[in-house]
Amino acid sequence: MPDFDLNATLMASALGVSRQTINELMRERRSVTVVMALRLSRLFGNSPEFWLNAQHAWDLWDSEQRFNNELSRIQPLDAA
Fold it and tell me: Is residue 10 part of a domain?
């Protein structure tokens, strides 16, 4: 955000959302929704897919970390 001279308040205003929403996004307490991806893409001039892919990658990484023990107990199937 510094590259754009934005802080949470200015970004919230530009996106039409609350400052709390922006703070929660930045602190990874809120996920990027489809609507937020559309807002962010409009503001920053990139695609909504960029934001959704970033959220998807984070979700996969986070879940893999949290469920690593459980997932490691699953034995892969051998192809016939």
Answer: yes
DSSP secondary structure, 13-74, as one string: HHHTS-HHHHHHHHTTSSPPPHHHHHHHHHHHTS-HHHHHHHHHHHHHHHHHHHTHHHHHTP
Q: What distance in Å separates the CA atoms of residue 14 and residue 50, rounded to the nearest whole number?
A: 19
Q: 47 with 40: CB under 8 angstroms? A: no
- Specify the pTM: 0.84
pLDDT digits (tens, 9 = 90+) for 64-74: 999 999 999 99
Identity of the residue numbered 7:
N
Domain that holds residue 45: 33-73
Predicted pLDDT at 38? 98
Sign of the CA dihedral running 22, 2, 16, 48: negative
Looking at the structure, do residues 57 and 44 belong to the same domain, yes or no?
yes
